[in-house]
């Protein structure tokens, strides 16, 4: 068993394709197939189901996957420690984030991080909250930044930023609304799985006593910017992160809709797997985030 075999195994598991894994690792498909054949022979078990051109891990493969990730990350930690000793930390930091924290938190955090580690490069991937959490659970990514606290017992998180969800409409729209009127509003919402939508629906169901299924949803849109424009044009109303519409409120293009009981508070979270060893660069970024949070709370002073 060697590192090349483990890298091939992990990449195939992530991409669910021998050919795509070979392309990603700059190997030929026969070479990567040979890596898996040799690995399976040494382990005495089959790691992948290969039926109808669909690739999936066997139960043995799923068990071995966690160990393979851990071994490869520990190898990276060894090299990383040596580079750190020599005074140079570099590499590509892959970050998956839902849209609101990506736009209103991540850029500032990366700027601060890059002042300490100027040789690090970044690969930013945008998904909704549920997709980010699923990718962490599957091992496809090390960590993510999302707008809803994870419910899975396998995940841990760091509270990194407070946020408020508000109801907003066009400049010539309603000034205030009662709870029972919300279900008659033409609503333009983010897609299912969005942290903003999840927080709003949880509030309406729990605190306002409304059934989300009875809401008048006229559109589901993935882009927060598109929703802002649709609301601005008078097509409907929406729940927004207050962070995301400050400029529109200042310019008078959108306005907040007053509601006596509407108070939806949430946080953004840095999420990672409890039991999985992070890559050294991901671990460095996590420690950086933790140190910043401690400082903001007064623990680092």
Describe it for me?
- By secondary structure, the protein is of the alpha/beta class.
- The protein folds into 3 domains: 3-83, Winged helix-like DNA-binding domain superfamily/Winged helix DNA-binding domain (Arc Repressor Mutant, subunit A); 87-160 and 268-296, Periplasmic binding protein-like II (D-Maltodextrin-Binding Protein, domain 2, 3-Layer(aba) Sandwich); 161-266, D-Maltodextrin-Binding Protein, domain 2, CATH 3.40.190.290.
- It has 11 helices and 11 strands.
- It has helices at 3-15, 18-24, 29-43, 59-85, 99-116, 129-138, 179-182, 195-206, 224-232, 246-251, 280-296; strands spanning 48-51, 54-57, 91-97, 120-126, 143-146, 155-170, 187-189, 217-220, 238-241, 254-256, 264-273.
- Strands 3, 4, 5, 6, 9, 10 and 11 form a 7-stranded mixed sheet that branches.
- Strand 1 (48-51) and strand 2 form a beta hairpin.
- The protein is elongated and about 70 Å long.
- The mean pLDDT is 88.
Topology (elements, then pairings):
Elements: H1 3-15, H2 18-24, H3 29-43, E1 48-51, E2 54-57, H4 59-85, E3 91-97, H5 99-116, E4 120-126, H6 129-138, E5 143-146, E6 155-170, H7 179-182, E7 187-189, H8 195-206, E8 217-220, H9 224-232, E9 238-241, H10 246-251, E10 254-256, E11 264-273, H11 280-296
Parallel strand pairs: 3-4, 3-5, 7-8
Antiparallel strand pairs: 1-2, 5-11, 6-9, 6-10, 6-11
Secondary structure: helix percent: 40-55%
Count of discrete domains = 3
Low-confidence stretches: none
Helix count equals: 11
Query: What is the CATH-assigned architecture of the largest domain?
Result: 3-Layer(aba) Sandwich
Beta-strand proportion: 15-25%
Rg calculated over all Cα atoms: 23 Å
> Could you give the distance between the termini?
48 Å
Order of helices and strands: HHHEEHEHEHEEHEHEHEHEEH
Taking the sheet with the most strands, its summary is: 7 strands, mixed
Shape annotation: elongated
User: In CATH, what is the class of the largest domain?
Assistant: Alpha Beta
Oligomer: single chain
Average residue-wise pLDDT: 88
């Amino acid at each position: 068993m060697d590192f090349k075999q483990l890298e091939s195994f992990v990449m195939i598991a992530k991409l669910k394709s021998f050919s795509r894994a070979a392309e990603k690792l700059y190997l030929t498909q026969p070479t990567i197939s040979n890596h898996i054949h040799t690995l399976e022979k040494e382990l005495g078990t089959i790691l992948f189901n290969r039926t109808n051109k669909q690739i999936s891990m066997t139960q043995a493969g799923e068990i071995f996957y966690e160990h393979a990730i851990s071994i490869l990350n520990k190898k990276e930690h060894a090299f990383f420690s040596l580079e750190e000793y020599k005074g140079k930390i570099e590499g590509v930091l892959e970050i998956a984030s839902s849209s609101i924290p990506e736009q209103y938190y991540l850029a500032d955090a990366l700027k601060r991080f890059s002042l300490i580690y100027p040789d690090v490069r970044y690969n930013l991937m945008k998904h909704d909250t549920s997709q980010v959490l699923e990718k962490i659970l599957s091992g496809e990514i090390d960590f993510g930044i999302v707008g809803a606290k994870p419910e899975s017992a396998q995940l841990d998180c760091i509270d990194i930023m407070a946020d408020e969800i508000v109801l907003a409409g066009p400049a010539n729209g309603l000034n205030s609304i009662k709870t029972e009127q919300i279900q008659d509003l033409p609503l333009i919402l983010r897609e299912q799985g969005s942290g903003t939508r999840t927080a709003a629906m949880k509030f309406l169901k729990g605190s306002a006593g409304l059934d989300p299924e009875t809401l008048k949803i006229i559109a589901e849109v993935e882009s927060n910017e598109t929703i802002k424009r649709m609301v601005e044009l008078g097509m409907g109303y929406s729940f927004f992160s207050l962070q995301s519409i400050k400029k529109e409120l200042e310019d008078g293009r959108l306005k907040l809709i007053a509601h006596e009981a509407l108070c939806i508070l949430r946080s953004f979270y840095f999420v990672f797997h409890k039991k999985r060893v992070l890559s050294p660069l991901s671990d460095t970024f996590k420690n950086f985030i933790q140190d910043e949070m401690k400082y903001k709370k007064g623990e680092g002073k």
